[in-house]
Design goal:
seven-stranded mixed β-sheet; Beta-Lactamase; elongated; 15 helices; binds magnesium ion; alpha+beta; binds adenosine-5'-triphosphate; 5 domains; 575 residues
Length: 575
């Protein structure tokens, strides 16, 4: 039975719809094909399904090439762009469509174009690779690596190139190089600081050892010198007196040695005053001239407006003399010694002080034989000398080193073999300017003293014996104690004592300073004299007893008596 008319019209309607849909589909497909978006299409035509294909197997590669992170470009032998992927266009900051047909070398930096032409000429079937600088359409420079190879079997020559952006890699390389350089600098700085620390620790250890030796040695000298003096007082025989004189001179030499040792150990008691270095140098000039002799020209080159520094004038002169003698020894055939002053700057921490402040620089420069590295590195060590036996003790530069460091300054050596040596001495500046301390006026030795009761506190029995005998010879009564606590017990037991002569460093946990402070508090009218073998004060004397005279061992009889006399005078005045 034929379908009803209404049904037929509905069927026709459906077929129409389907045909329209296929037409639409076909148009879309054609458009897609035209744009290259689709590689193959199956169309169901009236004579069955028909496949429109574009080499199906290449499709994944086309997608990869289009989407990959490297630029891809195919060029003709002259460099005209036949194809470029999206990344290539992005690298050159240009619309992909506009890139096709353009000469690629246009985007190569002018300086690299010849090399690029060579790359195109030589690509061949195995390919070549090189780095170039590209200039993008907006003027940006892009570093790239280009690998080019000839595409095979194309009839005519076609070159395919992969272009990799090196910007990030180059930046990373630069960052890495920067980091490396910083690391190397940090390591070098650390090495420098460590070696300075090792040097400082070595000097500190040697300093402590030296101070200890000097202290004991001074006590020995003291005992020998004291006893010699006592013998001298009684000796009549001319020959014996001469021998005694010679012995005393040997003791003076020994004392000089311990003095230098203490200077190195920074344990000398300095008497700094705010002084103009230029004045000190002008005053020392005649002495320095005599020290270097006529063969050597001495030049003073003193800067202006340098201001003052806190400096012990005697130690300063000793340091200058040591340097001048070293310079003279380094110039046996004559030469020039220049002492110059100027404003100096030191950066960074020096001896724990902020060395970046304003310093006064004293440089002592000779035209002598200079020092090889191994001498320069050890020159400040005590007893280091290159001079023949009997010529040098190796303590000259040790004194310079100790003195400058104790003054809060810094010393450095510049030296080249065959050229000469320059010693740089930095002293921190000070605001105050005053006159240097006037040297103590020599006073006549007291011939006969009023008889007094003197308490001698000294742990070294030889020294104690010398003190006692010296004091007793001129009529004093002496009470002895070998430690500070023993002395205190004596005093507290009610013995009336006019004066106390005490050593600083003693066993039993109490120093002479502490003993002196206690006596000051309880018996303010007792005269006190402090004696010291090393002036090795780990702490300076307390404020309350700063006025008490300190006698440095080895001292002579007359020095002891004078100190005691002045302490007694003082206590009488305060009573
Ligand atoms: N101006 C200089 N030129 C060349 N070498 C020097 C100079 N100053 C010092 N030296 C070297 O440094 C060493 C140590 O010097 P330092 O002054 O401490 O001792 P010394 O001169 O040998 O003996 P001392 O000074 O105790 O008589 C010297 O032996 C010398 O080798
Ligand atoms: Mg010397």
């Amino acid at each position: 039975m034929a379908p009803a008319l209404g049904d037929q019209s509905a069927i026709l309607q459906d077929e129409m719809e389907e045909l329209r849909a296929r037409l639409c589909e076909a148009e879309e497909t054609l458009e897609a094909l035209r744009l290259g978006d689709v590689d193959a299409v199956v169309v169901n035509g009236s004579d069955g399904p028909k496949v429109y294909t574009l080499q199906d197997a290449d499709r994944p590669y086309r997608i990869i090439v289009e989407r990959m992170q490297e630029g891809a470009v195919t060029l003709d032998p002259d460099g005209a762009v036949l194809y470029a992927n999206r990344r290539m266009a992005a690298l050159l900051r240009i619309d992909p469509d506009r890139l096709i047909g353009q000469p690629f070398p246009r985007f190569v930096a002018a300086g690299d174009r010849d090399r690029f032409a060579q790359l195109l000429a030589e690509s061949g079937q195995y390919g070549v690779r090189s780095e170039f600088e590209l200039r993008a359409a907006d003027g940006t420079d892009v570093s790239v690596s280009v690998s080019a190879v000839d595409l095979p079997d194309q009839g005519q020559r076609i070159i395919s190139a992969i272009v990799t952006d090196l910007t990030l890699q180059k930046q990373q390389n630069r960052d890495l190089a920067d980091m490396n350089a910083k690391l190397l600098a940090t390591m070098a700085e650390q090495e420098r600081v460590e070696s300075k620390l090792r040097e400082a620790q070595k000097m500190e250890a040697v300093g402590r050892l030296t101070a200890g030796i000097a202290h004991d040695f001074n006590n020995l000298l003291m005992a020998v010198a004291g006893n010699l003096e006592l013998i001298q007082a009684h000796a009549m025989d001319e020959r014996l007196l001469r021998r005694l004189d010679t012995s005393q001179r040997a003791i003076q030499r020994g004392a000089q040695l311990t003095y230098q040792l203490l200077a190195f150990a920074r344990r000398r008691t300095l008497h700094p005053a705010a002084l103009m270095v230029n004045d000190l140098l002008r005053e020392s000039e005649p002495l320095l001239r005599r020290a270097v002799g006529d063969e050597i020209r001495l030049v003073l080159d003193l800067g202006d407006d340098l201001g003052a520094c806190l400096i012990d004038p005697t130690e300063f002169q000793a340091a200058m003399l040591n340097l001048a003698i070293n310079a003279k020894d380094a110039m046996p055939a004559g030469g020039t010694l220049t002492i110059a002053t100027s404003e100096g700057r030191l950066d960074g921490l020096i001896n724990g002080n902020d060395g970046s402040g304003r310093q006064i620089l004293v440089s002592v420069t000779d035209t002598g034989h200079g020092m090889p590295v191994e001498v320069r590195e050890r020159a400040f060590d005590p007893f280091f000398t290159t001079k023949e036996v009997g010529k040098g003790t190796g303590l000259g530069l040790s004194q310079v080193y100790g003195f400058i460091h104790q003054s809060g300054g810094h010393v450095a050596i510049d030296s080249d073999v065959g050229v000469g040596t320059s010693m740089r001495l930095y002293f921190p500046r000070t605001a105050a300017v005053g006159a240097s301390e006037a040297p103590a006026k020599a006073r006549a030795m007291p011939a006969a003293a009023d008889a007094r009761i003197v308490l001698v506190v000294e742990d070294d029995s030889d020294v104690r014996e010398f003190l006692t005998e010296t004091l007793e010879t001129i009529g004093h009564t002496v009470i002895e104690a070998n430690t500070a606590p023993a002395a205190l017990r004596l005093l507290e037991s009610g013995v009336a004592v006019d004066a106390v002569v005490t050593d600083v460093l003693m066993p039993d946990g109490m120093s002479g300073f502490e003993l002196a402070s206690r006596i000051r508090r309880r018996m303010p009218h007792t005269a006190i004299v402090v004696t010291s073998g090393a002036a090795a004060f780990s702490a300076p004397p307390p404020e309350a007893i700063r006025d008490i005279p300190i006698l440095h061992k080895p001292f002579r009889r007359d020095e002891l008596l004078r100190a005691l006399d002045s302490a007694l005078d003082q206590s009488k005045a305060s009573a």
